[in-house]
Design a protein that fits this description.
The structure is a homodimer of 233-residue chains.
Chain A: E1 4-5, E2 8-9, H1 15-22, H2 25-34, E3 40-41, H3 42-49, H4 53-65, E4 69-74, E5 77-82, H5 85-100, H6 109-116, E6 118-120, E7 123-125, H7 127-138, E8 142-144, E9 149-151, H8 153-161, H9 166-171, E10 178-181, E11 188-191, H10 192-204, E12 208-210, E13 217-219, H11 221-231
Antiparallel strand pairs in A: 1-2, 3-5, 4-5, 6-7, 8-9, 10-11, 12-13
Helix pairs in contact in A: 2-3, 3-4
The first copy, chain A, binds a DNA duplex (30 and 30 nucleotides) through residues 24-26, 41-43, 51-61, 75-78.
DNA sequence: CGTTCAGTTCGATGCTCATCGAAGCATATC
DNA sequence: GATATGCTTCGATGAGCATCGAACTGAACG
């Protein structure tokens, strides 16, 4: 039996409510900020969206009940995150479409950093990430079956060798490899637990660092060289 | 240089405008109706959304300038369609997320037809389509590289044999094989020019027919048997 | 405890926008 | 031509909701 709501039977899930949640300017700003992957507090999000705390609070309550974000209390702070990888993927796809319908493709110095390398939720995105993905495919370290990629045997030994704790990564219920669409490149890059590990590894080795208050990632000269040496044949 | 709009520089594409377009109830109904793949007239869409023609007209104008739909004039009718496969994919992804955030997964007789087999823009979706996709993979008629699948040599001869005019399909600028995510199954099925051909072929052989005023597809008993004989080992 | 800071609730305000009737075009049909 | 039909423009109406100030809760911190 279908669900009865106000006497109207809607057997199909209602797109409008979710889209409407994202469709507000302030909420959209918050969500794109959360695409940076870091958990942000309510006031940080208010700043990001250029609104006062009360307004932010109301927005966050709505996104919570709409299952777009989740929250973790820590002392007197509330840290917000995107609820799901599905939500992150949806946002990136929206970015991709929005970029397509822009009057002209903007490639200024302001966002060239973003296009080169940025954080997408918890993994690497942008030109660098797409090149990495292609390289992994060419080297046959990953292969694509069904929708998402998977590590090959060769790939498993490769990542073990460079320090990835694959058993631990596999222990999480989250898939090891996922493909994620880039809004700037319109191509796939690697997401999933392994994608997350790679980004964390890049940071822990100080190959790159985050730009303050931005999703952009800046590689150091040495870091980029090491990254290339590691992942490109 | 970034685009200046009202003195505000926004280098990132604006999610909110696209999401807001989808976020209205009436527009969402029209868009999901268009997911059925058939081009619909303005009045048909007005009926679908339960609104008067003037309102529909205003909505359609907005979606046109927002690049969500496109239009083709024919006599005194205006036929609307989804602009892009990207738009269709976005809508299906939204359906998928909305279905996830529903209180309980509804599996009633009303939508069981939809879940079994339905039209997704121009190709087959639902349980049947996902099984087909898996079967093609298992038989190694298609293979997945990068994001989208591709025909194998074995697959090429198979589809030629059952009557697909591959050269003609390849002549279109549209990719032959695409994978598309199912909101009901949360798995991939086959889209692209070949996906379209398969659905058209199913219809032309009278294996199945569309339910009136629905995206659901009803296979005949004989048709389903023939379909299985054709695509399943 | 008082103080400070993070976040929420409440209520008032104001703007945006969906909605539809009436009238206006445009295209077909007789 | 005259009439019907599909769609649009215009203007008025009204509802929803984003916004913020003020007051409140609750946690840290001395």
């Amino acid at each position: 039996m279908s669900i009865e709501l106000n006497g109207i039977t809607d057997m199909q899930p209602n797109i409008a409510v979710v889209a409407n949640l994202i469709g507000d300017n302030a909420r959209a700003k918050m969500l794109t900020a959360l695409l940076g992957g870091k958990a942000l507090t309510a006031t940080e999000l208010a700043l990001e969206a250029d609104i006062m705390p009360p307004t932010a609070s109301s927005h966050l309550a709505k996104m919570l009940s709409g299952d777009l974000v989740c929250v973790r209390k820590q002392g007197r702070h509330k840290y917000f995150q995107l609820k799901d990888h599905a939500v992150a993927a949806l946002l990136e796809q929206l970015l991709s479409i929005s970029a397509a319908s822009m009057p002209t493709v903007v490639t200024g110095p302001a966002d060239s950093g973003l296009r080169q390398a940025r954080v997408c939720y918890d993994h690497l995105a942008g030109e660098t990430a797409v090149m990495l993905y292609d390289s992994l495919l060419v080297q046959q370290l990953i292969t694509e079956q069904r929708h998402d990629p998977a590590l090959t045997v060769k790939g498993e030994s490769f990542f073990q060798q460079i320090g990835a704790d694959l058993p631990r990564l596999n222990a999480t219920k989250r898939p090891l490899c996922k493909s994620c669409l880039d809004w700037s490149e319109r191509r796939s890059h690697l997401a999933g637990a392994l994608g997350q590990w790679i980004l964390a590894d890049v940071f822990s080795k100080n190959w790159a660092s985050r730009e303050p208050d931005s999703r952009a990632i800046r590689f150091t000269a040495k870091g980029l060289a090491a990254f290339r040496r590691c992942y490109f044949p």
